[in-house]
């Protein structure tokens, strides 16, 4: 679900300034253990020995000189041969063996440096992306939403209401604030960076602030559906189209920037885990980084359901954006349950119709025909079944007119989405061919779960309506508590079971 989350949309941040590491100065690479090769060192000594023999006395006879020179050269050759023999012993030594530990330490040090640099650059880019949302979208929209004067004759309209503003951004400003502090603490630590400097205490200071991501993820479905609805409202669309021309966005949209925070925790998990693994066991930050790794992994596990739900919301939104001609819009409670290519069976003719792509959401079953134009896939709407109070059952081969692996869906409603009903007809019967018994059982189980949940929500709404009616007829002051929020929350939780 969602692949653009881990890459920030901001332009590449400037290179950081920090003190250079001195670790390498104390570690001599294997190629620099000696100033020259052992062989050249011994040959140099032999040449100095022979050159000293060329200076002879002028009182010596030529024979004496030749004899002396011959003896001297013989000695020099013997010395050189002995040196070469000694060199054979030296060649049997593996000089790299003496420096394996140093090389491993240097490689780990360089890996840490790369990871820390990556952490800083990604945090800079991410924070800059959040700042772009603040400057280009959030602040101008807040000013408009809180503006109470209207130019009626000039037909001036509000881009979004204050409530829509809260739905759209949730606690986004809180995210911006904590990441400003996060980036500041990271810069302060890297100004005094050294080979034995620790970073885990900085991470552990961040961790309590990450709880704000739970709130952001809880509002995520509402934020995306609010954006999708507002995008069809002309004043908002005009504002967004103008804002998207800002060159600093570099092609990013408000929607993609709203989706960006969902990948932040995964980014931290990845880089902190790699940093812990790249830290030597003797490093003073080894234990702290491994504790940080355990903490961030546990936090990710605790919010895994929220992250998966956010991915599901992204998938639902992508499907809705690809739908062409659908009479319903995206809803915050809607989740994707499953999808596949099925064929509708016509009992009268005992034949199968054209294969369609069926998409099971948490409230309805949609069938479409995919069309690809210029590498863009569009889903041509062909119909849908409202699943509230529907019935589903597997059919035998005889019941399906001799066709195996079929199911029957009896829908209580047909027409437009039940929340915006403009047409209601008699119950419709859909018989679908599914490739195998295993697939058929899976579809039946998922459909039954969706129908049961919808029926439970319908019952809760009916109970709520009954209580409201009782409240309206009761004397004033006799009933003090309204159950609206409880029922709404219950319905929302039921719909989220399918994420």
Automatic annotation (TrEMBL):
Gene Ontology CC: cytoplasm
PH domain sequence ranges: 335-452
PROSITE patterns associated with the record: DH_2, PH_DOMAIN
Family annotation (Pfam families): RhoGEF (PF00621), SOS1_NGEF_PH (PF22697)
Taxonomic superkingdom: Eukaryota
Annotated stretches, region: Disordered: 1-39
GO MF annotation, one: guanyl-nucleotide exchange factor activity
Regions of compositional bias (Low complexity) in chain numbering: 1-26
Residue ranges occupied by any DH domain in the UniProt entry: 111-306
InterPro entries assigned: DBL_dom_sf (IPR035899), DH_dom (IPR000219), FYVE_RhoGEF_PH (IPR051092), PH-like_dom_sf (IPR011993), PH_domain (IPR001849), SOS1_NGEF_PH (IPR055251)
Protein name (record): DH domain-containing protein
Gene this chain is encoded by: PARPA_13455.1 scaffold 46870
């Amino acid at each position: 679900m969602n692949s653009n989350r881990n890459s920030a949309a901001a332009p590449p941040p400037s290179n950081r300034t920090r003190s250079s590491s001195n670790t390498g100065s104390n570690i001599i690479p294997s190629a620099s253990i000696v100033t020259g090769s052992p062989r050249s060192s011994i040959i140099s000594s032999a040449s100095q020995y022979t050159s000293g023999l060329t200076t002879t006395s002028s009182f010596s006879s030529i024979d004496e000189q030749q004899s002396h020179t011959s003896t001297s050269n013989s000695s020099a050759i013997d010395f050189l041969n002995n040196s070469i023999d000694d060199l054979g012993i030296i060649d049997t030594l593996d000089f790299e063996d003496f420096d394996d530990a140093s090389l491993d330490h240097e490689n780990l040090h360089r890996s840490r440096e790369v990871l820390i640099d990556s952490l800083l650059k990604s945090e800079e880019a991410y924070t800059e992306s959040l700042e772009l949302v603040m400057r280009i979208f959030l602040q101008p929209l807040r000013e408009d939403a809180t503006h109470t004067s209207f130019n009626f004759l000039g037909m001036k309209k509000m881009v979004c209401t204050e409530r829509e503003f809260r739905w759209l951004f949730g606690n986004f400003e809180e995210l911006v604030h904590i990441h400003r502090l996060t980036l500041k603490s990271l810069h302060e630590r890297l100004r005094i960076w050294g080979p034995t400097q620790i970073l885990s205490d900085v991470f552990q200071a961040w961790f309590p602030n990450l709880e704000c991501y739970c709130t952001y993820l809880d509002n995520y479905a509402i934020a995306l559906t609010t954006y999708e609805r507002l995008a069809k409202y002309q004043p908002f669309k005009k504002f967004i189209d103008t804002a998207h021309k800002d060159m600093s966005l570099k092609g990013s949209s408000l929607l993609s920037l709203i989706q960006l925070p969902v990948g932040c925790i995964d980014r931290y998990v990845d880089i902190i885990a790699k940093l812990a693994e790249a830290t030597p066991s003797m490093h003073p930050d080894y234990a702290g980084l491994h504790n940080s790794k355990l903490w961030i992994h546990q936090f990710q596990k605790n919010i895994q359901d929220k992250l998966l739900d956010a991915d599901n919301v992204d998938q639902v939104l992508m499907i809705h954006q690809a739908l062409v001609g659908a009479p319903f819009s995206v809803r915050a409670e809607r989740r994707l349950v499953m999808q596949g290519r099925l064929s509708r069976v016509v009992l009268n003719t005992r034949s199968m119709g054209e294969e369609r792509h069926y998409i099971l959401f948490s409230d309805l079953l949609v069938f479409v025909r995919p069309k690809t134009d210029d590498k863009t896939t569009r889903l041509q709407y062909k119909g849908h079944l409202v699943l509230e109070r529907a019935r589903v059952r597997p059919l035998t081969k005889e019941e399906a007119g001799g066709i195996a692996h079929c199911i029957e869906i009896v829908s209580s409603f047909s027409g437009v989405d039940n929340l915006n009903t403009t047409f209601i007809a008699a119950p419709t019967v859909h018989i679908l061919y599914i490739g195998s018994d295993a697939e058929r059982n899976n579809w039946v189980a998922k459909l039954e779960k969706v129908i049961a949940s919808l029926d439970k929500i319908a019952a809760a709404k009916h109970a709520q309506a009954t209580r409201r009616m009782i409240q309206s007829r009761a004397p004033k002051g006799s009933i003090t508590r309204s159950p609206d929020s409880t029922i709404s929350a219950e319905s929302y939780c039921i719909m989220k079971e399918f994420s």
